Amino acid sequence: MYMQEKILENLKIASLNQMQISALEAAKKSSDMVLLSPTGSGKTLGFLLPLIEHLDREMQGVQALIIVPSRELALQIEQVFKQMGTGYKVNCCYGGHSTKVERNNLSHPPAVLVGTPGRISFHIRNGYLDTSTIQTLILDEFDKSLEFGFEQEMSSIIAELPKIKRRILISATRMADIPAFTGLKKPLVLDFLEAGKQVLSGLSLKYLRAPDNDKLELLFGLICKLGAVSALVFCNHRDAVERVGLLLEEMGISHGVFHGGMEQEDREKALIKFRNGTHRLLITTDLASRGLDIPEIEAVVHYQLPVTLEVYTHRNGRTARMHANGTSYILLSASEHIPPFITDKHVEEKLSADREVPEPSVWKTLYIGAGKKDKINKMDIVGTILQKGKIAKDDLGLVEVLDYASYAAVKGDKIDKVLERIQGEKVKSKKLKFGISK
Fold this sequence. Notes:
The strands form 4 sheets. Strands 3-4-2-5-6-1-7 form a 7-stranded parallel β-sheet, sandwiched between helices. By secondary structure, it is α/β, with parallel strands linked by helices. It has 3 domains: 2-196, P-loop containing nucleotide triphosphate hydrolases (Rossmann fold, 3-Layer(aba) Sandwich), CATH 3.40.50; 200-348, Rossmann fold (3-Layer(aba) Sandwich); 363-436, 2-Layer Sandwich (Alpha-Beta Plaits), CATH 3.30.70. Strand 16 (396-401) and strand 17 form a beta hairpin. The protein has helices at residues 2-11, 18-29, 43-52, 71-84, 99-107, 117-125, 142-147, 151-159, 196-199, 216-226, 238-250, 264-275, 309-316, 378-388, 415-422, and strands at 32-36, 64-67, 90-93, 112-115, 136-139, 166-171, 188-191, 203-209, 231-234, 256-258, 281-284, 299-302, 326-332, 347-348, 363-368, 396-401, 406-411, 426-427, 430-431, 434-436. Helix 2 packs parallel to helix 3.
């Protein structure tokens, strides 16, 4: 109980929700569990808390394997686990990440390993990951993993886990059957999908209609009306994200773009700038509808219509999370209609003829050419920027430390002076490179 209280204190969470409490109780009753819960309901803590109950501080090797469909979700789970402050080591592995770094991590195995199916399979095939000590298997966003076509990889991984005692499968949608390769036998099923309607009780639903078949002017008008709020604009395809992004750039709208065709470094930078407020607007595919750490989204915009009810639900799940409020906007051309699978009532939103481009964010992002693998931590960076850069605490925003790079939000009217003052400064005897992230 003490550990749980300390974890909640570290995560700045006052209390567990009903789903998380039920997951903890279920883990005591059954070795296999299926947790059905919507996006934004706190599923990560719902399976990490039961997991910690079964970790052994005396045991060497990987004790728990968490398989996820995307690199962003792997990083998010790793971050949450670290913030919990349990003292157990955690690492993650995923495509686009350095295999050398991952091999080094696995040579001193973490208690918990999080990874995508392809990269975990790679480490098993090459003998870098010893699976003989793994006793807990967690399949997070399992429905998404199947949708992405990872069934074969997951099946081959699970076949290499000889000592599994506990299996937890998490999904945001119901499945007619649980595939046999998961090895789940008579699992205890916790279904909180209906409860998800309460999670989104603060969600307002609106639609806008263009006078013709060009929705870009409609999007521009909506962005001008929304002003300085954080928003996700969803498109169905990568090329649409790029096209909309370029056209908004021409209109003077500051934004970021995010989709699966981007290099990993560019995807990470886009999310970092969105989280730290440098960009309040992110144009994205449905890759951003689940599994990303992008809190406090005030609006979701369906620039292109969702193709299924699940897609619509997951997109909307990025806003009005937990006890917050948010608004979902569907954009329609003159010839489009709200899909019949969307039965919720939407109120029409009218735009005025006056259009004023929102003011740019007060934040810009500072790049630091060192990270965790260089033994640089968050406090090193905060101290350098505040002391050497000679700025007040309020002028420094979110700081994020990656493996070989770090990023810090700095007030835009201060960043040039900060850069001038800290350029060439040493941190822990290392001369670091600083710059404004483009």
